[in-house]
Amino acid sequence: MIELAELEKQADKKKNKFTKVSRPRDEATNNEAITDAVAQSTEERKRPQGIKKAKEGLRRGGGEACMEALDKMWAKKEAFDKEKEKAKEERFMASLEVDKAALELEKKRVSNEEKKLKRNCSRRKKR
Questions:
Q1: Are 39 and 51 in contact (CB under 8 A)?
Q2: Strand, helix or coil at 85?
Q3: Helices then strands, each counted (H, E), the chain
Q4: Where is the stretch described as Disordered (predicted)?
Q5: pTM of the prediction?
Q6: Spans of all domains in the chain
Protein backbone atom coordinates (compact mmCIF):
# COMPACT_ATOMS: atom_id res chain seq x y z
CA MET A 1 0.00 0.00 0.00
CA ILE A 2 2.76 2.43 0.89
CA GLU A 3 4.53 1.69 -2.37
CA LEU A 4 1.39 2.50 -4.37
CA ALA A 5 1.01 5.84 -2.62
CA GLU A 6 4.65 6.69 -3.31
CA LEU A 7 4.28 5.72 -6.98
CA GLU A 8 1.23 7.94 -7.31
CA LYS A 9 3.11 10.89 -5.78
CA GLN A 10 6.02 10.38 -8.15
CA ALA A 11 3.66 10.14 -11.12
CA ASP A 12 2.08 13.46 -10.12
CA LYS A 13 5.49 15.12 -9.92
CA LYS A 14 6.60 13.91 -13.35
CA LYS A 15 6.16 16.29 -16.22
CA ASN A 16 3.53 15.12 -18.65
CA LYS A 17 4.77 14.95 -22.23
CA PHE A 18 2.30 15.49 -24.99
CA THR A 19 3.04 13.85 -28.30
CA LYS A 20 1.08 13.86 -31.47
CA VAL A 21 -0.54 10.51 -32.03
CA SER A 22 -1.20 9.42 -35.57
CA ARG A 23 -4.49 7.83 -34.59
CA PRO A 24 -7.39 10.25 -35.15
CA ARG A 25 -9.52 9.05 -32.24
CA ASP A 26 -6.75 9.79 -29.71
CA GLU A 27 -5.87 13.13 -31.29
CA ALA A 28 -8.96 14.92 -29.94
CA THR A 29 -8.25 13.94 -26.35
CA ASN A 30 -4.57 14.92 -26.62
CA ASN A 31 -5.43 18.35 -28.06
CA GLU A 32 -7.77 19.09 -25.17
CA ALA A 33 -5.11 18.11 -22.64
CA ILE A 34 -2.53 20.31 -24.37
CA THR A 35 -4.79 23.37 -24.42
CA ASP A 36 -5.61 22.89 -20.72
CA ALA A 37 -1.92 22.67 -19.83
CA VAL A 38 -1.07 25.77 -21.88
CA ALA A 39 -3.91 27.74 -20.28
CA GLN A 40 -2.71 26.82 -16.79
CA SER A 41 0.90 27.73 -17.52
CA THR A 42 -0.01 31.17 -18.87
CA GLU A 43 -2.18 31.98 -15.88
CA GLU A 44 0.60 31.13 -13.45
CA ARG A 45 3.17 33.37 -15.16
CA LYS A 46 1.26 36.66 -14.88
CA ARG A 47 3.08 39.08 -12.62
CA PRO A 48 2.32 42.59 -11.48
CA GLN A 49 3.90 45.52 -13.28
CA GLY A 50 7.40 46.40 -12.10
CA ILE A 51 8.24 49.64 -10.30
CA LYS A 52 10.29 51.01 -13.20
CA LYS A 53 7.52 50.43 -15.71
CA ALA A 54 4.93 51.92 -13.38
CA LYS A 55 7.02 55.08 -12.90
CA GLU A 56 7.69 55.35 -16.61
CA GLY A 57 3.98 55.06 -17.29
CA LEU A 58 3.27 57.85 -14.82
CA ARG A 59 5.94 60.09 -16.38
CA ARG A 60 4.52 59.60 -19.84
CA GLY A 61 1.02 60.23 -18.65
CA GLY A 62 -0.24 56.76 -19.31
CA GLY A 63 -2.39 55.95 -22.30
CA GLU A 64 -4.14 59.34 -22.43
CA ALA A 65 -1.01 61.23 -23.48
CA CYS A 66 -0.31 58.71 -26.20
CA MET A 67 -3.87 58.95 -27.47
CA GLU A 68 -3.72 62.75 -27.50
CA ALA A 69 -0.44 62.70 -29.43
CA LEU A 70 -1.89 60.19 -31.86
CA ASP A 71 -5.03 62.29 -32.36
CA LYS A 72 -2.91 65.39 -32.97
CA MET A 73 -0.78 63.57 -35.53
CA TRP A 74 -3.91 62.19 -37.23
CA ALA A 75 -5.43 65.68 -37.47
CA LYS A 76 -2.23 67.00 -39.06
CA LYS A 77 -2.24 64.11 -41.52
CA GLU A 78 -5.86 64.73 -42.48
CA ALA A 79 -5.18 68.45 -43.04
CA PHE A 80 -2.15 67.62 -45.17
CA ASP A 81 -4.17 65.07 -47.15
CA LYS A 82 -6.92 67.65 -47.80
CA GLU A 83 -4.38 70.16 -49.10
CA LYS A 84 -2.76 67.49 -51.22
CA GLU A 85 -6.14 66.45 -52.67
CA LYS A 86 -7.01 70.10 -53.37
CA ALA A 87 -3.72 70.62 -55.23
CA LYS A 88 -4.32 67.42 -57.18
CA GLU A 89 -7.80 68.60 -58.15
CA GLU A 90 -6.41 71.98 -59.29
CA ARG A 91 -3.78 70.26 -61.44
CA PHE A 92 -6.47 68.06 -62.95
CA MET A 93 -8.68 71.06 -63.76
CA ALA A 94 -5.74 72.91 -65.36
CA SER A 95 -4.92 69.84 -67.43
CA LEU A 96 -8.56 69.55 -68.46
CA GLU A 97 -8.61 73.19 -69.60
CA VAL A 98 -5.44 72.66 -71.66
CA ASP A 99 -6.98 69.58 -73.28
CA LYS A 100 -10.17 71.49 -74.11
CA ALA A 101 -8.15 74.32 -75.67
CA ALA A 102 -6.14 71.81 -77.72
CA LEU A 103 -9.37 70.20 -78.92
CA GLU A 104 -10.79 73.57 -79.98
CA LEU A 105 -7.61 74.36 -81.91
CA GLU A 106 -7.77 70.99 -83.62
CA LYS A 107 -11.40 71.61 -84.62
CA LYS A 108 -10.47 75.01 -86.08
CA ARG A 109 -7.57 73.47 -87.99
CA VAL A 110 -9.81 70.77 -89.43
CA SER A 111 -12.47 73.30 -90.46
CA ASN A 112 -9.79 75.48 -92.14
CA GLU A 113 -8.45 72.44 -94.00
CA GLU A 114 -11.96 71.58 -95.20
CA LYS A 115 -12.52 75.14 -96.43
CA LYS A 116 -9.22 75.07 -98.33
CA LEU A 117 -10.12 71.76 -99.93
CA LYS A 118 -13.55 73.05 -100.99
CA ARG A 119 -11.95 76.14 -102.57
CA ASN A 120 -9.39 74.03 -104.40
CA CYS A 121 -12.08 71.66 -105.65
CA SER A 122 -14.31 74.52 -106.83
CA ARG A 123 -11.39 76.15 -108.71
CA ARG A 124 -10.56 72.91 -110.49
CA LYS A 125 -14.17 72.44 -111.59
CA LYS A 126 -14.27 75.95 -113.06
CA ARG A 127 -11.32 75.26 -115.34
A1: no
A2: helix
A3: 4, 0
A4: 13-60
A5: 0.41
A6: 2-90
